[in-house]
Amino acid sequence: MTPTKAAPTASTPAPTSVTTSGSTPTAEAPTTSSPATPSAASTADETGIITTTPITDEVLRAVYASDQEMYPVGLTYSRLRQWVAACPDLSICFQSTKIKQGLLGVVIVLPLLRSYWEDLLTGKLKEPDIDPEKMFPRPASSSTPVRTPGMAARGGGKTLHVMPQKQEVGLHVYHIERLAVEPPTPKQKRFSDIAMEEVTRRSEERGDWVVVGHSALTATDGGKRTFQRLGFKSTGYRELFVTTARRNSQATLSSSDGLAGETQERERPEAEEEEELEMMFIYPDEDGASRRSVSEIIGYGRKVVSMSEMTVKHLVSDAIPVA
Ligand SMILES: CC(C)(COP(=O)(O)OP(=O)(O)OC[C@H]1O[C@@H](n2cnc3c(N)ncnc32)[C@H](O)[C@@H]1OP(=O)(O)O)[C@@H](O)C(=O)NCCC(=O)NCCS
């Protein structure tokens, strides 16, 4: 989750509106023209009228390029696109009438079936390995038609409709970013609140999920502060980029400034040091009992370039099979 310079495309899909004052956004109303009719509530604060659109390919590419630059994990662009395509209503662009360029920010949230989400929290499952086909909840279908054998044998025409079981889902915030360049005023609502309330509203509106918690792998200071403010706690799983200073083993130099045509080898005055970037993982409780420091865990001589921390906010503590 890193800053990007994303821009809206000319072919931005038709927006829908979100109200922003108070703690609960009102129901989304699809519109064909932008912006939506202002509600009394949304004109009362300075956040302006917020509208939402799906993420365009251009914005998604900007998010990907910037993330890779700062956090070069093995995530392919096609995987990122798969995530968005598998659950487009949780990948959202926000626009505001108060922002000159219009684009307020973007959020990409991945819904994971509970067992996969719990593996993600502890680092057993890594973000790039999230396979939406297997790990996202099945798409909602209102009911499953079932014909009983007895009915079929008697040639009866009755069909029973069995309501599908609710699926337990954890919502993982893969990316959140305020894109507006204008600094927010104290009277405006924070972008992180706008985005997370909209994600919550959309996931509740589905009706076929039990959302057991929210998570985020926080990479930046702003992200860490934001999720802490929202009540997220560290799971103890951390991903680090570290550099290791390596002595160059070929500590000799070639020189041709001696006899004509002859190459001489001479010792370097000091062995050269090269820095190698490496990714390391710290799992929950690795520092628990002994309270070891990060340097002790990763080994001295390594320099931490960045450290991301998995954070979570549990909404349901026990597995609740909901019919
Ligand atoms: C994470 C992020 C989306 C949170 O956005 P946000 O909720 O709008 O809040 P901001 O981070 O922009 O706020 C920065 C500061 O501006 C001020 N501020 C922002 N919105 C404010 C508001 N509505 N009212 C008052 N002050 C506000 C606060 O002083 C805040 O500092 P604080 O968090 O120490 O209190 C945003 O910081 C961001 O886009 N960062 C870059 C991308 C990033 O790091 N993403 C997360 C990766 S884990």
Describe this structure in words.
Residues 1-50, 131-157, 247-274 are annotated as: Disordered. This protein is an alpha+beta fold and 323 residues long. The chain has 9 helices and 14 strands. The strands form 3 sheets. Strands 2-1-3-4-5-8-9-14-10-13 form a 10-stranded mixed beta sheet, sandwiched between helices. The chain has a two-stranded antiparallel ribbon with strand order 6-7. Strands 11-12 form a two-stranded antiparallel ribbon. It is globular, with a radius of gyration of 26 Å. It starts with 15 loop residues before the first strand and ends in a 9-residue tail after the last strand. Mean pLDDT is 78; it is low at 2-12, 21-44 and 251-261. The structure holds coenzyme A. Coenzyme A is lined by residues 1-3, 176-178, 184, 186, 188-192, 218-220, 222-223, 225-226.
